[in-house]
Amino acid sequence: MKKAAAILICAIFGLTAAACARVYKADDTVFDSELQFSVRMYGGDTEKAYEEMLALMDRLSASADTTDPDSVISRVNAAPVGAAVEVDEIFCELTAAATKLYRETDGAFNVFLRPLSVLWGVDAETVRDYVPTAANPAGSSPASLPGTAEIEPLLAAARPGSFGLTGHESGGMLIKTAAVEFDFGGLAKGWAVDRCREIAEKYDIQSAQLDLSGNLVLLNRYYDEKSGAFTDWTVGITDPRPEDLLFRYYVMAFRSAGDVSIVTSGDYERYYYYSYENRNPVRVAHIIGKDGVPVGLRRDADGTYSNAEHVISATVVGESSMLADAYATAVCVMGLTDGAAFLEEKGYAGVIFTSDGRMKIVGSIT
């Protein structure tokens, strides 16, 4: 589920001994160390709020962590066609949201593509072996890339019609009608921080920064413990194509009064390069398009692939982190023109970057 952020709060504020009693900061790994969860909260019962947030993360991990063989989602994915699998209320809620978003985006957001991610070697577990690093900028890659005959049967099953789900409020039963597999990576983190925001409000938190590996929620305005004043947040968007793999630089910044979610999706964290003989290598990203091919890849007449113009980064700003997360992924699949129009229709703001150097701001991101 890991998807690292292209969003950073533009300052990390050190705490003095006097301020420690007023501003609460914590940082933990969740999902068996797959994700980083950090908070900065002021006012209210911050410790009880954070304790409840961590308990929520544990419940979500038990339901939706594909790296845990005992999780609900892993049991669903491993089940054969026709077998009934008991699922919990979180799985039911995420599946309902994913089904609605699939239809809303005409398949551009699709949590049922896990077999294709595995086929391309861009699933969270496999791509670690290939992703370029500072020590190995070229990275490595599979021996070959998939062809149409491998892609089409998996793509045919990657849709809501490939399963039946009964029960929603307190769990239910799922039966597959085709070999579908789930991956809530573009949905569950947003769902979680939306719930954490509700927890913060329950405990009367007056200011909060909640960040789950890039799914950022800002509650109310930023509290400056030095001045004792509330001010706007400053948010920076980093370069999706940095020259140095070790560092990311801001390409723009904006101010926010809070009560907002900010999420970025892009092709720059989970990817590898595949080399054909006597040709430049092609970049293979983790976001799978509606044709079953990673965004930014174009199938050529001879069955090979080349890179094509595409959205490399989409930052979405809006009320719901879950929707912002899903919309950001969908925009990467839709492309610049259709993606921008979609955000405008939904009333969500955004900043979109393309591989040919274009940038488009949609709506008001402040």
Overall mean pLDDT stands at 90
Q: Strand pairing plus helix content: what structural class?
A: alpha+beta
Give the tally of β-strands.
20
Largest sheet: 8 strands, antiparallel
Q: Helix content range of the residues, please?
A: 25-40%
Which regions contain 5 or more consecutive residues with pLDDT less than 50? Answer: 1-21
Q: What Rg, in angstroms, do the CA atoms define?
A: 21 Å
- Helix count from the secondary structure assignment: 8
- Compute the separation of the termini in Å: 29 Å
Q: Hey, roughly how much beta strand do the residues contain?
A: 25-35%
Spatial strand sequence of the major β-sheet: 2-3-7-8-13-18-19-20
Outline type: globular
Order of helices and strands: EEEHHEHHHEEHEEEEEEEEEEEEHHEE
Question: Could you describe the 3D structure shown?
Answer:
This protein has 366 residues and is α+β, with helices and mostly antiparallel strands. The chain is built from 8 helices and 20 strands. It has helices at 46-64, 72-78, 89-104, 114-120, 148-157, 188-202, 321-334, 336-346; strands spanning 7-9, 23-30, 35-42, 84-87, 163-166, 172-176, 207-212, 215-219, 222-224, 229-231, 233-238, 250-256, 260-266, 271-274, 282-285, 297-299, 305-307, 311-318, 349-354, 359-362. The strands form 6 sheets. Strands 2-3-7-8-13-18-19-20 form an 8-stranded antiparallel beta sheet. The protein has a 3-stranded antiparallel beta sheet with strand order 1-11-12, with no helix packed on it. Helix 1 runs antiparallel to helix 6 (188-202). The two termini are 29 Å apart. Residues 1-21 have low confidence and may be disordered.
